Amino acid sequence: MEVKILLATFAIMFLFLGLKVINQYEQGLVFTLGKFTGIKQPGLRFLVPVFQRMVRVDMRIRTLDIMKQQIMTKDNVPVHVNAAIFYKVSNPEQAIIQVQDYQYAIAQYGQTALRDVIGGMNLDTLLTERQEIGDAIKKIVDKETHGWGLEVIGIKLQDIELPDDLKRIMSRQAAAEREKRANIIKSEGDKEAAKNLADAARMMDKAKGAMQLRTLQTLDGLGPTSSNTVVMALPVEVLEWFKKGR
Prior knowledge:
By secondary structure, the protein is an alpha+beta fold. It is built from 8 helices and 8 strands. A hairpin with a 2-residue loop joins strand 2 (26-32) and strand 3 (35-40).
């Protein structure tokens, strides 16, 4: 009787030790006596204790920071740049068997590719073409990690830190450019205003009584305030008489 109880207890313990729950975002690689023998899908799965073990692989998209590093651009400007790699495991068997630590390995390749790409670009290109730089780094990382069971979703530059003296120079240059554009816009406005005034003067000269009407509008615009005093050297009619006398 006691033997049966012990056997039943052992069977229950064996069963519970062998049950494994795999989450929806995971896959489980099964190794039997050290040899890869299959992949377990999400759900409740059973493994033979002692003889089998399982390695869980997260299949979700991951974000990996590329640490900030100083890089010399093609035009000899030292900049500090960091980036982020977005990737996921596409083949868990390759990711676990072919690479010891795929997360560390892809981070190192990303860091090296970042230095290579930025080192071959000028500062102006670096500041204006971030997307193109990220695509170039992604292309290098994809090539180097081929066969690792990883898929690089994208690589994005985060911060580009410039030397303080260069920041001051660029700030003064930007201020000068803004002042230049403001002066151009103002001169174009003055030119347009002068043209409109000239057109208005020609129209008033051709239209009979237009000058008198404009004078009355100006007087009316002054308002009835007693503090306004208008002094006219000559009446409008006298000016018209002189004009006809010529």
